[in-house]
Amino acid sequence: MSIEKSYNSWASSYDEMHNKTRDLEATVAREILGEWYYTNILELGCGTGKNTQWLLDKCDSLIALDFSEEMLTKAKQKISSKKVVFNQQDLTKDWKLAPNSMDLITCSLVLEHIQDLNLIFKKSSEVLHKAGQFYICELHPFKQYSGSKARFNTGKVIQELEVYTHHISDYTDTAFKNGFKLIQLNEWFDEDNRDNIPRLVSFVFKKVI
Ligand SMILES: C[S@@+](CC[C@H](N)C(=O)[O-])C[C@H]1O[C@@H](n2cnc3c(N)ncnc32)[C@H](O)[C@@H]1O
């Protein structure tokens, strides 16, 4: 099943099912971005809008992109605001956004589904204005090495999604190549227990060119 179709069928249960990765990422986003206010935010892979409403309180306007019609439908059912535009958009295709127009891009739990990181960093660098920030939070590659991946229960089977492993240096090297500087890297653990493998890794990059 394609990634898009998988998310279409996951959409109805995504918010309700037990999901430590989803919940920990919500905490991470709030901890990392909590103290800032932005003019224009671009949210890549907004899904059912887990972070969208919260981000809306932190900006003047927000564009939320996702290719899954059903995930977007869920988000739109929950969120109504003049400040937000939801666009059905494959992130690997042309985003049709003005260059240098955003001051924050967020990308939560999306890049494991995108093979070519360079494509995303290149487009992000184009639409961010100088000194704009790029927040990324993903399943930690250590988790990926040990076999973790996005999966959900369809009611009949456990459906595993197509994923790609990105090493920490893949993120940083690709960011540097596209004119970003790393300003924050954190690892996040279940119950904050640092004896475990970290569940998530987060980055904040700043556009410096
Ligand atoms: C695990 S969900 C995360 C949703 C939300 N960011 C969150 O943290 O709950 C991944 C989302 O990325 C979207 N996605 C994956 N690959 C994509 C692509 N190539 N273009 C657009 N959206 C994509 C999926 O449709 C899905 O909504």
TrEMBL record:
SUPFAM superfamilies per UniProt: S-adenosyl-L-methionine-dependent methyltransferases
GO molecular function, one term: S-adenosylmethionine-dependent methyltransferase activity
InterPro entries for the chain: Methyltransf_11, SAM-dependent_MTases_sf
Top-level lineage group: Bacteria
Keywords: Methyltransferase, Transferase
Domain Methyltransferase type, first and last residues per copy: 42-136
UniProt KW Cell membrane keyword: no
GO biological-process terms attached to the record: methylation
Protein name (database record): Methyltransferase family protein
Species: Gillisia mitskevichiae
